[in-house]
């Protein structure tokens, strides 16, 4: 009989359900797990703190679920023969629900993504006015170019959505690894800095190999 886990979240029914969904054969399993792990992470941060073992484990599981969802979608696209013909591993992005998008935004804030796109509105308006003037005499060309541009933007949006999920997942897993390492540092460095039980420290230490393995899987996929 296995000993009880030193952290409470592992025994939570929702956490167990999310792990089951993540490893299930259900096509929507990973996406469902993403929602649960995101919710549990937010609750654990509020209850135990951002650096707690409970919150850190949910952070890792959330990042892992994001990555596994992309992998699952890739396999589905390959089976259907709808993937990219150029051998690209990335599938077409599935439309996400409003709640899923909101949760991704929350987790984006957790890892404090600071990349911002600046938009020069005046410059863009001037360029568009110039283009409209130049092609005003050829409406057929304008329509064709517009359709082609719309298709390209849609493809780029799909790829960007997938890239965002993969890199957000990688950030979440890397952050979780760093936090677990801090908790396990007493054992690794033979010191006594962390105010937690040895069981908790060894639990943190036990998570490092599986997180490193998953991070390696992400880099292999990219």
Structure report:
The chain is mostly helical and 222 residues long. Helix content is 73%, strand content 0%.
Instruction: State Rg.
Output: 22 Å
Order of helices and strands: HHHHHHH
* Low-confidence blocks of residues: 113-129
Strand content: under 5%
Largest sheet: none
Bin the helical content: over 70%
Topology (SSEs and partners):
Elements: H1 13-23, H2 29-48, H3 53-80, H4 98-110, H5 121-135, H6 139-189, H7 198-221
Briefly, what is this?
This protein has helices at residues 13-23, 29-48, 53-80, 98-110, 121-135, 139-189, 198-221. With 222 residues, the chain is an all-alpha fold.
Pick out its properties.
222 residues; 0% strand; mainly alpha
């Amino acid at each position: 009989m296995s000993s009880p886990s030193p952290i409470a979240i592992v025994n939570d029914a929702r956490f167990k359900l999310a792990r089951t969904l993540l490893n299930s054969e259900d096509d929507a399993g990973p996406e469902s797990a993403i929602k649960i792990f995101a919710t549990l992470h937010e609750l654990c941060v509020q209850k135990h703190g951002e650096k707690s073992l409970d919150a850190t484990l949910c952070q890792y599981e959330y990042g892992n679920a994001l990555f596994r969802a992309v992998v699952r979608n890739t396999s589905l696209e390959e089976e259907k023969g709808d993937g990219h013909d150029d051998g690209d591993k990335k599938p077409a992005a599935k439309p996400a629900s409003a709640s899923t998008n909101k949760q991704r935004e929350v987790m984006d804030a957790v890892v404090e993504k600071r990349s911002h796109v600046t938009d020069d509105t005046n410059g863009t308006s001037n360029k568009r006015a110039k283009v409209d003037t130049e092609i005003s005499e050829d409406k057929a060309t304008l329509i064709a170019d517009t359709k082609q541009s719309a298709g390209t933007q849609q493809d780029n949006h799909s790829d960007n959505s997938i890239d965002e999920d993969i890199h957000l997942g990688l950030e979440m897993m890397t952050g979780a690894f760093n936090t677990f390492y801090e908790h396990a540092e007493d054992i690794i460095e033979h010191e006594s800095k962390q105010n937690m039980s040895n069981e908790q420290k060894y639990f943190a230490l036990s998570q490092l190999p599986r997180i490193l393995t998953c991070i390696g899987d992400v880099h292999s996929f990219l």
